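A favour, since you know our structure tokens better than I do. Would you make up a two-line entry for one protein for me to read? Write everything out right here, beneath this request.
=====
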Amino acid sequence: MKELLEQINTYYPLSQETVQALMNICTEETYHKNELLQEAGTAARYYYFIQSGLVGYYTVDQQGDSVYKIFFEEKSFVASTAAIIKDKPSDFNIIALEDCSVIKYPAKAFRELINRYHDLALFQIHYLEKNWVVKKEPLEISLKHETAKQRYLQLLENKPLHDRLKQYHIASYLGITPTQLSRIKKEIN
């Protein structure tokens, strides 16, 4: 739980009272490789903090292929946040791409704590601003204006993440076939 609190404190420090209330709703869980944390079409009921492992966030297109939106490494908060906020079934699957150890906490209980503890609400605001506005905007722009090669070069900037992903995950994330990805890699080398 120490890693969770350290990560929260990078956004906004919590009081001891808030920490205790939050710890009371958290549980530690393990997910094995290829196990779903969240299934598309079902209610999104939990937030997750990744202690170890790698998680992918994807949907399935009309041809039945997985289309990866984003990947989450250690020290990341993961959830089908839009589904939680809208209280609708998730459009996305969240899958363990490696064996994962997570801290899981129920969205409903977390929302109650946000309403009760001002510092936790400030953490949530700062987190959403940084990750759903500041980080997400360049990604959305790149999807509209950059080539797959340019987006691949950006992914390569995070070499540790790149090296953990399978080629079909990368191709799916870039919106290309594995063959097209091979061509891009040959061009770069």
In short: The CA atoms of residues 60 and 66 lie 5 Å apart. The beta strands are 27-31, 36-38, 46-52, 55-60, 66-72, 77-78, 93-96, 100-106. The radius of gyration is 18 Å. The chain has a mean pLDDT of 92.
